[in-house]
Each structure stands twice: as structure tokens, then as C-alpha cells.
Amino acid sequence: MASEEELFANIDALLEEEPQLPPPAERARLREAAGITQARLAVALKTSTQTVKNYENGRSEPKPPRLEAYQRLLKGWAAKYPAHGAPAAPVAAPQPVAPETFTGPAAPKASDPRTLSTGPAAEAADMTTDQSTPQHPARPSTSSRRPAAKKAAKPAVDPRFPHGPLAVLDGDGSAYGVGGIVLDCPATTIPELVEWTLRESGLGAAKLNRYGKDSDPLIVLTAAAAVKLGLPERLEGHEQRRSLRLPEDHPVVKQVAKAKWQLTQRGFGPWARIYRKAQGRERQCVQLAILSWDALDERSWPGVSEMEPADIARVLGVYATRVITPRGSTAVSGLELMTALRPPTKAVQDPETGNWVSGHNPGSLGTEPMDPAPPEATPEHPVVVNSGWTGGFLNEEAYQWVRSVDTLTDEECTLPFAVGLDLNTAFLAAAARLVVGLSAPDHFHAPRFNPKIPGSWLVDLSHIELDPRLPSPFTPDGTRPTGPAWYQTHTVAYAQELGHDVHPIEAYLRRETGAYLDPWHDRLKTAYVDTLADLGVTRDLDDRAFLAAMEQHKQNDPALAAVLSAIKATVKGGVGKLRERPQGKSYKDGETWPALQRPTWRPDIRAAVISKARVNMHRKLNNMVKMTGLYPLAVLSDCVVYPSPGESPLDFLPYAASGKPQPGGFRLGPTPGLAKLEGVQSMLWAVDLMEKGLNPARHIKGGDAVLDEGE
Question: How far is CA 227 from its chain centroid?
């Protein structure tokens, strides 16, 4: 029998052991339940996003003192968000109701302003700074136009912005904010509206990165509000809608100038920014969006312009909380989100003077635009025109391929259905852990290929023999290359993966690299998955339940369905904006255009995303052949059409004997990169389109725009 001393020694040994953490999957669940991205958690733990990912997939474990901090965080989250079926932590007793004479929401109080959260999930911090009530406080909605309360994302609370990031102003002076609040806005002119927004509204949003800037408040104007403020109800003209602006001599433009406010170079259009130069650290800027001027594109925001003001506020509020406060089209917002999450500068201390000055933020794209390598540019770019470049260009675009009818077998032709599978936000999935160049390109002759270096390579891949029943992974139209051509690193690396030697002739490579898009990917992925979950499409569904949920998710809540559409458009539009082409009939080749002045005009990063997405698609197509013997009929961007014995993808997707999906091929699910059912048509219909040279995937998807560069 053990002695007391031995027992106490054993107990002391247990007490001295390192603290135990929950399993990796539980760590990820707790973080997602708290609404915290991996990137933000990495900042809190003072480590890298990849390290946090390793913690959550079991590849590595934290070491002291990070171990104790991580365990403390997980314990706190576990108390707030117990696993399904576990008892929740006791909830504090409700506070007494405020007197009826106070009509605004109580602002949180704090003893230490350093506790102010600067991220998208401010509920994770205890923010408690004194905040005075605006002169025009919020009032509960009593209008018959208010809809019944519906489930939506709870916006982050910031004592400086007690009323959320935005409001929708109607003609009666009611400004509908997030969470059902309604503010009284007395403004009758645009300058008065700007002053009220900055001084009294309590609108705005905290920065998404410690080195970034707070989001400017957004005021969305209904048609009635626009007319009340002196604006025309419609903005008419022969130009494209997005390029229409009020003339310089319009009374409202004169009012703005007289009040010593300024408009950006884009003028007073559907998305107008009105500002004064910042005073110290305080920005003075308001974003306006005019609904009746088509500020919310129907393709990205289906049905939103026709909603009631309170519902519009709900849709935009969820988007602002989960993504970013809109600053233009979803494409513009996608680009702005990249910069908001990777600010170009941060405060650094001058070693000579000791003063804090603005310096480069590592991992960002900096403050200055960068010329691309000639093959990465567009034919009209000054780098190409001024140098007389004739060496060809990168052609890294999404798939648009249809299989030759001659390769169809009799067995395939007798299958009764053609089923479309659409990968969820395939380009967002491609952005995960994507290493891109951060410095200017350097030119190399006859370099040795290195798959870890991002850049553009001139290689001859025309000798590679591939199955004609699959598209070539090297060209967007799926045809075999005919000679040397420029390819992004991922495309060349895939040729190596397929077992072929590659010998680059020349290359433009970047020495400084980084996963620039990682926080962008993490935030948009979380927004997409959370919004789908709110619509009833969750990760725990089996494949049949997933397909059933996807069939009706848009009907469950049209407002959240519109948010989901906007998130998807933000991904494609943001990637497309990285290579925005010149607009306007007066443009001449060789001239610069406004987009070139942005550090985010980076066609090489766009090419990297598309190359990786196309390679990922081909890898899945290849694996499907190995597992099922099935070949696709057509591929358009992120949609692939297969012949099928039944009208469901369950009839042909590969499953193991256990009933679980086989890894490597197409799998169903709500996560970016996994597939969903896009459409069902007859096989004869698909073959008929193919015989006419048409792509069945395009007709199933309805002709979606792919990576629009011009929004």
C-alpha cells in the first residue's frame, strides 16, 4: 500500500504538469462561437495566424507563457459557449429597466479606455468608457413600417459609436439603425446631415486592425430623403450608372463647397464621400449612398433597394458587422477590406529624435503604387506601351471549358441527368495561405523553378499529354498550350505535381513575400459560414440535410440571403479590382488611369488567386476520375457539370463504405471550397448545348459575371 508521502508526491507532480487544453476541434469551435477570426486571435497571442491554425488542427501546441494565456481564453469561452447539450454558465440577473424619460440605449462604462476593442468582435472585450448621450437619442421604433424582429448578427458595441455603423434615412427624418433603433434626424440639407452624422448620431465603427482607421459612418438615403435634401430622385444620363455624377453647378454641390466640405475626385454620385481634412487623429468624413441612384447593385444586393428602411438597415448592418461598412460597390468594399485588415503604415519611433512617425507596416502593400512586370500588365498599361513589350502576357483566368462531344461515350449519353456543382466561394478558398509578392518584380533569365517563389514564369508546357476528356489545367479555355507562355507560380507547380519537368526560359519574381490575403480570407470565410448558419445551413448537417437546407435557405430570410449574396460578390469583386481596367471612351493606350494610383492595383495577386483556384478545380476533377471514373461535361469558373444517373449529386459523388465523403474529390458542405447543387437539367439538353459550342455550366448558373474588374 502506498504511503501518504508517495501519494502526495504523485499529486504534486500532477499539479506541476502543464495545463491541459481541449482537443483541437474544440478549440476551433470555441473561437468560432465567440466570433473571433484566427488572425485576430493571433494578434492577441502575439503569434502568427498560421500558428493559430496549427493549434486548431493539432499540428502544434503552445508553449508557456502563451500556453497559460490560451488556456485561460478557452476556459472563458467554454463557460460562455458550452458544447451542444452541456449546461450553460449561469447568466447574471437582469439589470433594472431604465426610466422612461431616457430613450437611448445605455452606453457601456469603462474604467480603462485601453480596454476598447478595435476588432470586429468587440463583444470579446469589456469596453467601458463614459459616453454622453447624443442630443437626438435613439427611440424605439413605433412605425408601422418596422418589420418583426428577426435573427441577425449582433453588431459590435463601441462606446464611441453607440448606434452602430450606419443608418438608413427616410423622408420623415427617421434614421433607421441596426438593432431596431430609430434616430431623429433634423437635417434638411446635405451639409446639415453631415454635421449631424459626425456630431450627434453616434454612428461609426471601430478599426479592424490596431494600425488601421475607424470606419466612417454611412448614411443611406431613400428616394424621399434624397428629394428632401435637395437631390434629384433619379440620376439620369447616357453614361453607365456608376459613372454618373451631379454637375459641378448643382445647388447641392455648391452647398457642400460653401460649408467648407469637400467631395472626393469621384464627385457626388451614388456613393458620395464628403470630408474635411483630419484634425489630429480625428477623421471628419461621411459616406452617403443614394438608393434611388442604384447605389446597391441588384446583382450583389438582390431585392434590398425595394425593402423597407428598417430592413435595409438590418441587411447593411449585418454586412458591416461581419465584413466592413460599405464604401461603394461590393467590389470596392472587397478592396477596402484588404487595406483595412493590412494597413499600409504603423507608428514607429524615430531612433534619432525619439518621436513617433508613420512607417511601413510589414506584410502590407505599402503606400505607393507598384509597376507590374510587363507580362503581368494589361496591353494598354504604360509599362507595356512605353517599353514596346511584345513578349506576351499572363492568361490566368477562370475556366470556361466545354468538353468535345466526340469524347462522350454511349453510356454517358444514356444517363438521364446533367447536374451542376458550384464550389462555395472558390476564389476565397484559393486565397487561404496564399503567398504573394510584396516587393517589385526582378527579371531572371533561365531560372531554376521554385514553387515557393511567387511570380510569372515563361515556360513551354505544350509537350504535356493530358486526357482530352478533362480541361487542360494550363489554359482558361481548357485547350492544350501551343508553345511557351507566361504562367503564375501555382500553374507551373501543378505541372510539376503531375510529374513533368519544367524548365523556365525567363521569369519575373518577387523577393519579399507574404500571405497578404490571409486576414481577408479569414474574415470573409467567417462571415460567409456564419450567415449560412443563420439561414439554417450549418456544418453539422449530413449531405442530404445540407441539400435540403440549401434548397430553401433563401426563402428562410430574404434579408440574410441578400447579405450572403453581397459577401460572395465582395470576394469576386475584390479579386477583380486588383486588375481594374481603364474606363471611358476617351481613354488612349499608354495613358494612366485612376486605379493605377492604388497600391492595391496588383494584377499579379489576382493572377495568383485565379491560378490556384483553377488548379484546385483540376485537382478535384482528376481525383473524381480516379475515384468514380466520371468525366465532366463542362466547367465555368467555379461550376462543373457532370452526367448523372439521378437528379442529385448524391447519385455520383464518391462515398466511402462508412458513408462519409471521400477526400480529394468534390464534397458537399457550406465551407468555402466545398460544393453545393447548382442546377439539374436533362443530359440531352446538355449534349445539345455542347454540340452548339455552348457551355452547359453557363446556362445552369445563369451567366454569372466572373471576377468583374470594373465595378
Answer: 34
SS3 336: helix
Strand, helix or coil for residue 546: helix
**pLDDT digits 0-9 by tens, 579-604:** 999 987 889 999 999 999 999 999 99
Cα distances (angstroms) measured from residue 537 to each of 82, 649, 654, 692: 20, 17, 22, 37
Cell matching residue 486:
507566361
Q: Which of 620, 337, 607 is nearest to 470 (CA)?
A: 620
Give pLDDT, residue 112: 38
| Nearest Cα to Cα of residue 209 among 118, 123, 126 | 118
Amino acid at position 409, single letter: T
Of all helices (H) and strands (E), which one includes residue 496? helix 489-497
**pLDDT, tens digit (0-9, with 9 covering 90-100), for 263-278:** 998 899 999 999 998 7
Specify the pLDDT at position 110.
38
Those residues whose C-beta lies under 8 Å from the C-beta of residue 159, and which sit 6 or more positions away, are 107, 108, 109, 110, 116, 127, 128, 129, 130, 131
The residue type of 560 is L
Q: Model confidence at 294, in pLDDT bands (50, 70, 90)?
A: very high
Please give the grid coordinates belonging to residue 209: 486592425
Beta strands in 470-629 (DSSP E): 484-488, 506-510, 513-514
In this predicted structure, the answer to whether residue 485 has a pLDDT above a threshold of 60 is yes
If 0-12 CB within 10 Å is exposed, 13-18 middle and 19+ buried, where does residue 119 land? buried
Cell of 403: 468538353
